[in-house]
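WARN no homologs supplied; continuing
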Amino acid sequence: MKDQTHHDKPLLDVENLTVRFAVKRGGIFGKAKYLYAVDDISFQIKRGETLAIVGESGSGKTTAALAVARLVNAYKGRVDLDGTNFLALDDEALRQARAKMQFIFQDPYSSLNPRLRAEKIVREPLDNLEAGPEAERQGVVDRLFKAVGLHPEQQRLFPHQFSGGQRQRIGIARALATQPDLIICDEPVSALDVAVQAQILNLLRKLQADFGLTFLFISHDLGVVQHMCDSIAVMYMGKIVEHADRISLFNNPLHPYTKALLSAVPSVDKKRREQTKRILIPGDPPDPLALPEGCRFANRCPVAQDRCKAEQPALKQIAEGHKVACHLVDERAISPL
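OK structure emitted
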């Protein structure tokens, strides 16, 4: 029974995570203002599953991922990884805990050290954390190259001798080296050709099945996450505006922003194309240093009411596993659009 309870607990539990950056205004003696890039967000990921955080540029999705990994400092909040508060660790405890959480970066061109051979890049996390006997580390590298679809003889090559897709495979192998519990994928295919994107996404899904991996997947492209994720959180201006399992979100998007994003996803299904009305989002996002009191999407929302502009909506559960932050959505779970 104990094992079952442990299995049901989320691997990653993020509570009230907030990231702010000081921005000085008004000359030498001007008071610092704060830009809240991530504003009080919470989410969970079960072991072996994938959560996508999606949103347009400036929504805060990448900053949230960086804060979870302690690559930027959180202002407040809690990040529990397998029962350990990751934000409370320091020095050696943090260094050792980093083995449990690894990052796959967006740009395979700049995220690899151009002076190191591929085998050294993949082996580096093992050497830094002194993971396992030194004599066995080369065997780990050999197995990882095979797992990500690279040939043994390619281990001696430098990054510039690989294509973009191959470089991302090296980045994936490096992330797997320490046998992490959680892998954060920050737009891992956005810099690649469309055909190569599909190969990398299929590889990630295969590795997840083979090794029981858990992914936090950051993307601006709902078309990409549709085939990759178990659940999706939609961010806008630092806030999560909708959070649901993949099927619920794609079949019944409730927040006007989510509905507009989904209407822009191309489809090969002719019937779906005919049924989907393209929703254009007018205007620009609000000034992040002067955020409105109410809903942050209100100035662009085609159905916004006075209450929306005056009062910030809470992220509330509408149906089983489906949360939305919108005053105009009630328990009937009908989109105002």
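The mean pLDDT is 88.
OK
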